[in-house]
Fold:
Amino acid sequence: MNKNLTCLAVAILCAVACKTPEKTVLPVYLDPEKPLEERVEDALSRMTLEEKVAVTHAQSKFSSAGVPRLGLPELWHTDGPHGVRPEVLWDEWDQAGWTNDSCTAFPSLVNLAATWDRDLSRLYGDCIGEEARYREKDILLGPGVNMGRTPLNGRTFEYMGEDPYLAGALVVPYVQGVQSNGVAACVKHFAVNNQETRRTATNSVVDDRTLYEIYLPAFKAAVQEGGAWAVMGSYNLYNGHFNCHNDRLLNGILKGEWGFDGVVVSDWGGCRDDDEAVTGGLDIEMGTWTNGLSGSASDSYGNYHLANPYLERLRDGRATEEVLNDKVRRVLRTIFRTGMSPEPHYGRFTSPEHFAASRRIAADGIVLLKNDGVLPLQVPEGGKLLVVGENAYKMMVVGGGSSNLKTKYEVIPLEALREAFAGKAEVVWERGYVGDVTTDYNKVVTGQDLSENRSAERLVADAVQAAEDADCIVFIGGLNKSDRQDNEGTDREDIVLPYGQDGLIEALAATGKKLVVVNISGSPCAMPWAEEVNAIVQGWYGGSESGHALADVLTGAVNPSGKLPFTMPLALSDGPLKTERQYPGIREEGETWWQEYYDEGVFIGYRWYDTRNIPVQYPFGYGLSYTTFELSNARVAKTSLAPGASQTVTVTVKNTGSAAGAEVVQLYVADTEASVPRPSKELKGFEKVYLQPGESRRITFTLTPQDLSFFDAGSHRWVAEPGEFHALVGTSSADIAADLPFTLK
Structure:
């Protein structure tokens, strides 16, 4: 029986047993028809001090306590943003050995961001929320919306790109979809958490303008527009205080300025101080002793900062019950919104619809970067397609840190291409290079054999030899989820492809055969061979259906419509982080923590490259199609705008090619007369439009006063200064079809 229904049934039976002969009256907190806050206050009034403290900290690796006496269920937390994590043991990270916890693996969040599609984000949230509810999870630890400050961040693949508007627009429907299933979306990692190097010992030193313009907007959108029920603090420090109990971030901004009424959950092991844990805005402390019972006293959970030490402070007057009650109210709201929601939620798990959604999202996020006509793939009847590269064969769902999943199945690209060309052409695979031969993570095992006896030289030679009679070559390489690639806990060392792949690609290009390069990664990679190959496709960690999604795009079953959610630079040195004090940080004399200075301010990603006219490999928002589009008749409603008024921008987009497809129309704003340094353009709107050949559609954008503003730290408010602005309509940050000036009075 469902654990939450069991608790509810026990409580109702107790209430019935105490009824008067005339009428059964449920306690207010048990009555789902009563308003939420009435239920919260009634339950709070019935709890003892010890019960209140108990609900503010973990009782196992992934659960926090309820109140059994009152029929209030415990809260079950689960990773992660891409799928529901397999069950682990009560006090350990090791797998519990269940045979029915193999989930649907959805594409990585950067893949979702590359769709630039709000509807697909809602579909993603709906599906993963259903899976979490079926598994009786109450808090889903995701999505992640930290900004892509550096392409080296090991968790870039878990986030939504380098732009706060894009991430904010996509996080809202994701959160709404998850929570429509009675599961709390726990948005993470709050805040200015942009590297894995020394993530638990680095203080982020960032000015208020940068904080409010770049690193907070997506979180604010999740809370105020998405209605997120939970937020997770981050490991790092800000203003010298750990973010899992950072008074300014949690009490001042999140709960104060934004009016967040949900629960703040610590990252696992992110709580570091008894006093700040009480006063700094944390509501549930999770995972301090992350290696189980061996890292602490026998009563591990009782020794958490918000457990016995908190109880002692309450009893001797060092802590107030008023602050405790605020924490408990937030926990109770979460319980009544999830396990004791008025609406019944049952969920679905590994349904055909979920796998179909995973395939669709993965395919719609794949980005076509270059194509000289070789794609869609055309292999003669009875011909030979040579597939080269470890990533064509290696399963990618397993690994990467807390987003590690045990999926019901995973379709690899090689398998999908052989399926697509079955009976038409021979598909031959050569490994080409050896990357990561591990096939398990946290005791989740793929079952693949990735052992290899050939030398690096032999692997290249064999691939080149196999190309002699091939009609076309598809190289599928890139990164994986091993250390110092796309992986929690470590950052990359450079954006150069590892394992000698650049040399292998150049050797394949030298054969003169048609060559398609597919780069599978969750973060930007340098492509020095771009001019030597016929086509380039940016793929991602696409989940259970990743192979099918890639084959759909390569064969033309799906017309690519993805757009880059980050800039693809030519070299790491071209980016905004130039000094050690910016990244990975420095340890100054007398300081306990490493100091990481955000000296670049608001100039990250395309804001840096475009403002300084620095050439890039491919710009933010870029992506091609198998058809062509044209933007025309762009207009602003007003050439002179009154203070506080909104501006309307319209443009017509037409499919001028011969295939149905989708274009992402993007709206940027430029402020040319600002009193502070501003980027040359900033994304303020986008719309993905699906069109048949010859079809056109008129798109309308609305620019609000907020869209024209910068954050003035001195007055702590958003300011839109009078002067000239430009509405820039295009298909990437570098491909602007219309420049529409207007004046703000």
Q: What stands out?
A: The radius of gyration is 27 Å.
